[in-house]
Amino acid sequence: MKIVVIGGGAAGFFSALAAKQSDPDAEVVLIEKTAQLLSKVRISGGGRCNVTHSCFDPRALTANYPRGSRELLGPFHRFQPKDTIEWFELRGVRLKTESDGRMFPTTDSSETIIECLLEDARRCGVKIWTKCKLKGIEKVDDGFRLDVGAETPLDADRLIMASGSSRQGWEFARQLGHEIVDPVPSLFTFNVPEFPLVSLAGVSVNPAKVAIMETKWAQTGPLLITHWGFSGPAALKLSAFGARTLAERQYEVDLLIDWLPGVSIQRLQEQFEKERRVNPNKQLKQAKLVQLPKKLWGALLNRAEINEQTAFAGLSKGKLSRLLEVIKKDRYGVKGKTTNKEEFVTCGGVKLSEVDFKTMESKKCEGLYFCGEILDVDGITGGFNFQNAWTTGWIAGCSASSNRDEL
To answer: Which of 49, 278, 300, 379 could be disulfide-bonded to 110 (CB atoms 3.0-4.6 Å)?
Structure first.
């Protein structure tokens, strides 16, 4: 049995290791077109590698995938974050959980994860070919023939494609009979031209609710004000779930921000009117009833065209109505996006209905398997994209091995 894995990223490595460990007698060859293996692992989490997330309920876990949530439910019952943690711990790598649920190696170094994967490949005998440029794939009766630019082609009984968000990988999948869902970016921040809150860069509000006007897309969570617009978990999740809508609108939309999603507009109005009766001479800038960062509160008063030194007694019904509108429905025109740090996540890829998620085998081409970002699966930030890579990689590798019938 000869299994070839295309792609030296997280999914590719994990599938190669799973295939070799499932059938030690199989010959497993991993090919990578560049000189560097596991490049996304190296830069993930600012060089710390956000390995997975401490969400151990498969159904709850799937809610973090804008695309692929239904398909991943079964796979997560077989290999989920608990299994990822155990896999690495058995190889001497311990993970820790941070307050937001993200999990990192205790060393806080992605090199720990990289060395673990490389060492496991060496130990179990996975062959790794770097700088191997794939020029073509031919389906033959007994498997696949790969043109790698050598005099002799590379033959494989089974083929695992883990080429990530590579247009060449998608083109090869298309040639083998698959439909490719057009790729668009996911996980990005929002640019606001002539941003009126630029002086507040670095201020975070938790929670805030962010919605794309005239759509169903909205997210609640921590929102970060930046020099160019909005970032933070709420903005990133919104960009992921609304990725296709945003691409269709060429990243020109209006955002509505509810700065106090836990308080109704009626309740806010009652609080302001009570304060006006009890403390009529208190200035609005001193208001304690609005639990927002001081700088932001001042900026919101300014957006409502209210002097922050105005006393509660001087707040007319019209001005109060305008202020409540700003607090609950603050509107910003977005034009463009910015990549979130080192995140490179794409929405799109091999159409999911054409893949058997029990085995990760193609329904169009026998002996062909997919895992990782080549599929139209993507997760929000927080370790979910790596968990997709570990899960689908493990299933693809085990299924492609000669022991696949035992699964």
So the answer is: 49
Compute the half-sphere exposure of residue 224: CA atoms within 13 Å on the CB side of its CA: 13
67 contacts 375 by C-beta, under 8 angstroms:
no
Beta bridge partners of 96: 104
**Rounded-to-integer distance, Cα 264 and Cα 301, Å:** 18
Determine the pLDDT at residue 270: 94
| CA 232, chain centre distance (Å) | 13
Which option is the CATH number for 2-184+346-406: 3.40.50.150, 3.20.20.70, 3.40.50.1820, 3.50.50.60?
A: 3.50.50.60
Minimum mean pLDDT range among 225-239, 340-354, 373-387: 340-354
Query: With 50 as the cut, is the pLDDT of residue 355 above it?
Result: yes
Distance CA 255, CA 330 (A): 8
Q: Name which of 48-62, 126-140, 285-299, 356-370 the model is least confident about.
A: 285-299
Region 145-166: what's the mean pLDDT? Answer: 96
Q: Over the stretch 8-21, which tens digit does the pLDDT of each residue have? A: 999 999 999 999 99
- Residue among 55, 320, 11 at smallest CA distance from 161: 11
Helix (H, G, I), strand (E, B) or coil at 6: strand
192, 335 Cβ separation under 8 angstroms: yes
Output the pTM of the full model: 0.92
Closest CA to 394 of 362, 358, 366: 358
| String of DSSP letters for 104-156 | EETT--HHHHHHHHHHHHHHHT-EEE-S----EEEEETTEEEEE-SSSS-EEE
The H-or-E segment that residue 369 falls in is strand 368-370
Check residue 343 and give its pLDDT: 54
CB 283 within 8 A of CB 308: yes
CATH code 3.50.50.60 region(s) in the chain: 2-184+346-406
Listing DSSP states for 288-350 in one string gives SSS-S-HHHHHHHHHHTT--TT-BGGG--HHHHHHHHHHHHSEEEEEE-EEE-TT--EEEEEE
The Cα–Cα gap between 144 and 157 comes to 6
Strand, helix or coil for residue 9 = coil
Measured N-to-C along each axis, helices 384-400 and 69-78 cross at an angle, to the nearest 10 degrees, of: 60
The tens digit of pLDDT for each residue in 98-130 reads 999 999 999 999 999 999 999 999 999 999 999
